[in-house]
Amino acid sequence: VGPGLLLMAGSFAAFRLLNRGLERLVPPPPSARRNRWKWRNIWTSLAHSALPSTRSPSPRRFYLYPELHKDLVGTQPPGARSLVAVSVGYFLEDFVDMLCNQKFHQSWELLFHHSVVIVCFGIAVLLHQYMGFAFVALLVEINSIFLHLRQILLMADLVHTTCYRLTSIVNLGTYVVFRITTLAWMTRWLLLNRQQVPLAAYTVGMVGMAIMMPMNIILFYRLLRSDFFK
């Protein structure tokens, strides 16, 4: 068993344990007690988002690894493989958690999203390639911090507070910068560097981007409508 698989398995187990213990660490408020598993699920997701956000290629780190601009296939920034493997473990845990606790018609979009991420990130970890591509994709998790925090405030019935209003504004701003822009840049890189990427990997990457971009644009519209155009 390779170190990548061990890291993914260890990450899955760690996030599973965290999920089980979160209700003691962060007790749900009365408004969230009717949906305890969701409360635990969101806090687990927030913990994962905070982890790669400290190591992902922020604008400053992007300049530290200028090779990421040119080569997302062979470039492997320090710690990238471990970080991506840990993320695969989290997405597997979240997939299982939703599958066991939520009706399929309520979670199919996220299950589909997680499936794409698990396949793409798993290929990068197991093949020791495309690590730069997966590493840049983790920029999305910077926005996920505010996306999950917004959900926590909603569940805690704090929607009419200044904290919620500020969170929703920062959430939309980081959504455009770190989610939509990142995915658009990755799609452009794939199109411009078609010759560098084998056909199978190129197909997986383009299909992944073709799925992710519409999903994220639709979610952005839903957030905008919910928080600003009610």
Automatic annotation (TrEMBL):
The keyword DNA-binding does not apply. It is found in: Membrane. The chain crosses the membrane at residues 133-154, 166-187, 199-224. PROSITE patterns: TLC (PS50922). Its main location: membrane. It is a multi-pass membrane protein. GO terms for biological process: membrane assembly; phospholipid homeostasis; plasma membrane organization; regulation of membrane lipid distribution. GO terms for cellular component: plasma membrane. It comes from the Eukaryota. Residues 34-230 form the TLC domain. Keywords: Membrane, Transmembrane, Transmembrane helix. This is TLCD2 protein.
